[in-house]
């Protein structure tokens, strides 16, 4: 549905988006994850035809976003960072206006507007002026605006920003409900959002793609593989040596717990190897009391940090 | 065409829910009504004096009361719109840019020219609505004149003010597309208007530069219309002026895509 090839956008000397390529299949929800200023908004603006790319191509539903801009615009609904609403208009009038400029046929307009309000739970606010709505409701009007013409592709730039936790859950459920009929790209810098709503994640940092995968895969099979946490009562040096002898161990960090003097060792293993039983055997063999032994899978936060932190900063963190 | 109408409709609604339009129209009608009354009584008084003089000296004098009032009144209207139109156009694009709704318009299947024309025609309609009540004063005067002056004088005068107003609105719309700040748009528009007004005041020599400046001055052509003359050079001047600034606005909107947003 969406094909992006080598997309680059430079603002003068600054390259906001740097040779980004990815594809989104029909009915899929793609999450765009990255710190602020990573190039998420710029990429979305290029996809919607709001601004041209410096080089590279992007196609939506087979149409080039630059060459066939009008056709692309007919196929997309777009919620920018700030909902593009007119404060002096009532919700229903506003959606009617958007339906008109999105070329919804006049006989279907009223039905489409009602449908968009129903999906976003705005029916009881239809006659209210947008300026009198709360932040959360304005955001919903913004989402309703992106759906009103029933587009194939919906692009949402930080759809849950500024909402309270209950509204965030509502919006996420709404987005999940839209998948299937619509292809969705959403950007966010909130990690749980991605694991909860998206089928696939593109992690973008400083304009470059750092990773593309499903949230599950990213969480489970990260470079460096699994970590195992061992809590033992043992001399530190001897423990480290013993653990390093276990085949499959790549690295051991240890730390003394201040409370009871137990040692906690974090054992990093090669990808795919499960050495928990070998570690347990080794410890028992040495006669050390074992208190805890469990696998730690990296959270999306750690992956994200690992992928988006500078190499220099990362090296420094490892050295400590 | 449907897109253009959608924009037009939205703009008209926007005008009539915002206080700006009501304040502008209200002030305009208040001041124009006051001055119409003032001109009418002043000219009538003058005509009585002339009549008395002509009775004393036995020289029958023709005195065109409606024509005099009309000319003075149209002159006043042109000065008034100089002050009022910047407020009608200041928000046309500046507000859209500030609110972020420009992003909606520019990612909708609607061309820049449709957006610009829809907005321009809406501001022109509002201007016509503002002007309409003043025509009733003149019509009232016409109906009570004897003989009734030719209607085409009135029509020419109002055609002139619509053309002048349209030109100012097109220029104001263009200036509004250059900034996000409504106040800056209004001030710049006003300065540009003043410049156009006084363009022909500086010239001393006949011919050459002087006549070019005279032709370019927006107020000079208006004087013909106020005297009831529809001059093709005036028509061409105002129409090219409007087309030029509508075109420049389209270019300005289009160039936003290429600038850093």
Note down, in words, how this protein is organized.
The complex is a heterodimer of chains A (320) and B (261). Chain A is of the alpha/beta class and 320 residues long. Chain A has two domains: 2-216, 3-Layer(aba) Sandwich (Rossmann fold), CATH 3.40.50; 227-297, Alpha-Beta Plaits (2-Layer Sandwich), CATH 3.30.70. Chain A contains twelve helices and 14 strands. In chain A, the strands form three sheets. Chain A has a six-stranded mixed sheet with strand order 6-7-8-3-9-10, sandwiched between helices. Residues 311-315 of chain A have low confidence and may be disordered. Chain B has 261 residues and is mostly helical. Chain B has one domain. The longest helix of chain B is centred in the first third of the chain and has 39 residues, at 19-57. The chains are: A alpha/beta (320), B mainly alpha (261). The interface between A and B is medium-sized, with 32 and 27 residues.
List keywords for this structure.
heterodimer; A: 320 residues; Rossmann fold; Alpha-Beta Plaits; 2 domains; 12 helices; B: 261 residues
Strand share of the residues of chain B? under 5%
Helix content of chain A: 25-40%
**Mean pLDDT rating of chain B:** 87
Given as residue ranges, the uncertain stretches of chain A (5+ residues, pLDDT < 50) are: 311-315
- For the record, what CATH class of the largest domain in chain A applies? Alpha Beta
Specify Rg of chain B, calculated over alpha carbons.
Answer: 21 Å
Oligomer: heterodimer
The profile of the biggest β sheet of chain A is: 6 strands, mixed
Shape of chain B: elongated
Largest sheet of chain B: none
CATH topology of the largest domain in chain A: Rossmann fold
Largest interface: A-B, 32 and 27 residues
How many separate structural domains of chain B?
1
User: What is the number of domains of chain A?
Assistant: 2
From the N-terminal CA to the C-terminal CA of chain B, the straight-line distance is 29 Å
Following the backbone from N to C, one meets helices and strands of chain B in this order, namely HHHHHHHHHHH
Structural class of chain B: mainly alpha
């Amino acid at each position: 549905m969406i094909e992006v090839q080598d997309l680059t956008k430079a603002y003068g000397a600054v390259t906001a988006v740097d040779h980004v390529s990815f594809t989104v299949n029909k009915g899929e929800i793609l999450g765009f994850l990255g710190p602020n200023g990573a190039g998420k908004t710029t990429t979305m603006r290029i996809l919607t035809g709001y601004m041209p790319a410096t080089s590279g191509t992007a196609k939506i539903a087979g149409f080039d976003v630059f060459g066939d801009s009008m056709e692309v615009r007919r196929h997309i609904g777009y919620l920018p960072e700030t909902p593009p609403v007119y404060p002096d208009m009532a919700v229903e009038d506003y959606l009617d206006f958007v339906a008109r400029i999105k070329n919804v046929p006049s006989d279907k307009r009223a039905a489409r507007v009602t449908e968009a309000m129903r999906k976003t739970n705005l029916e009881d606010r239809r006659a209210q002026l947008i300026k009198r709505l709360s932040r959360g409701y304005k955001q919903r009007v913004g989402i309703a605006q992106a759906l009103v013409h029933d587009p194939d592709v919906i692009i949402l730039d930080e759809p849950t920003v500024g909402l309270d936790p209950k509204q965030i859950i509502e919006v996420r459920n709404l987005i999940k409900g839209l998948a299937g009929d619509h292809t969705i790209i959403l950007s966010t810098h909130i990690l749980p959002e991605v694991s909860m709503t998206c089928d696939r994640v593109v992690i973008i940092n400083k304009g470059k793609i750092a990773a593309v995968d499903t949230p599950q895969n990213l969480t489970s099979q990260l470079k460096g593989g699994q970590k195992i946490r061992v809590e033992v009562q043992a001399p530190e040096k001897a423990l480290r040596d013993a653990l390093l002898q276990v085949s499959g161990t790549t690295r051991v960090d240890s730390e003394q717990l201040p409370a009871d003097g137990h040692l906690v060792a974090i054992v990093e293993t090669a990808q795919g190897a499960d050495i928990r039983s070998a570690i347990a055997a080794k410890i028992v063999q040495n006669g050390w009391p074992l208190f805890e032994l469990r696998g730690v899978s990296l959270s999306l936060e750690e992956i994200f940090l690992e992928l988006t932190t500078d190499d220099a900063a990362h090296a420094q963190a490892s050295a400590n | 065409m449907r897109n253009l109408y959608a924009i037009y409709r939205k703009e008209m609604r926007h005008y009539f829910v915002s206080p700006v339009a009501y304040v502008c129209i209200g002030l305009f009608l208040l001041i124009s009504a006051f001055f119409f009354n003032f001109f009418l009584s002043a000219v009538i008084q003058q005509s009585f004096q002339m009549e008395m003089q002509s009775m004393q000296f036995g020289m029958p004098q023709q005195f065109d009361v409606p024509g005099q009032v009309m000319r003075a009144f149209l002159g006043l209207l042109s000065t008034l719109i100089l002050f009022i139109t910047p407020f009608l156009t200041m928000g046309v694009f500046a507000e859209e840019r500030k609110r972020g709704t420009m992003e909606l318009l520019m990612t909708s299947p609607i061309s820049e020219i449709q957006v610009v024309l829809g907005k321009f025609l809406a501001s022109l309609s509002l201007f016509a609505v503002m002007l309409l009540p003043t025509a009733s004063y003149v019509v009232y005067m016409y109906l009570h004149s004897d003989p009734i002056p030719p209607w085409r004088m009135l029509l020419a005068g109002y055609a002139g003010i619509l053309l002048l107003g349209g030109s100012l609105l097109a220029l104001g719309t263009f200036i509004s597309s250059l900034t996000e700040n409504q106040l800056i748009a209004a001030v710049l528009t006003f300065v540009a208007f003043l410049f156009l007004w006084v363009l022909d005041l500086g010239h001393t020599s006949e011919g050459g530069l002087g006549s070019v400046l005279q032709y370019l001055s927006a107020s000079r052509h208006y004087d013909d219309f106020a005297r009831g003359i529809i001059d093709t050079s005036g028509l061409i001047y105002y129409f090219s002026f409007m087309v030029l600034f509508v075109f420049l606005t389209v270019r300005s909107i289009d160039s936003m895509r290429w600038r850093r947003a």
